[in-house]
């Protein structure tokens, strides 16, 4: 799924430096640097707002109200998979630039 180290740290409780080291050992390259994007960097248009709202609605629907208090990585992965399916089934017009969110932007 390509989660940022911050998300893995929130889910596992492991320190970020250990996660980064493990990532490099397993993949042979360092994980992507930088912080998670802020919401205003993601939601720059109504379309992006619709995309983000869809993903978050799926996440809450799958993970329940507890996701407001604590990250549920399993629910997030299932929601992201459902989001990708919904986008594909929506058959969005190619001439309109819909931006697909990444797992780290949802």
TrEMBL record:
GO annotation terms (biological process): bacterial-type flagellum organization
Keywords on record: Activator, Bacterial flagellum biogenesis, Cytoplasm, DNA-binding, Metal-binding, Transcription, Transcription regulation, Zinc
GO molecular function, one term: metal ion binding
Pfam family, one: FlhC
Transferase keyword on record: no
Official protein name in the record: Transcriptional regulator
Organism: Vibrio anguillarum (Listonella anguillarum)
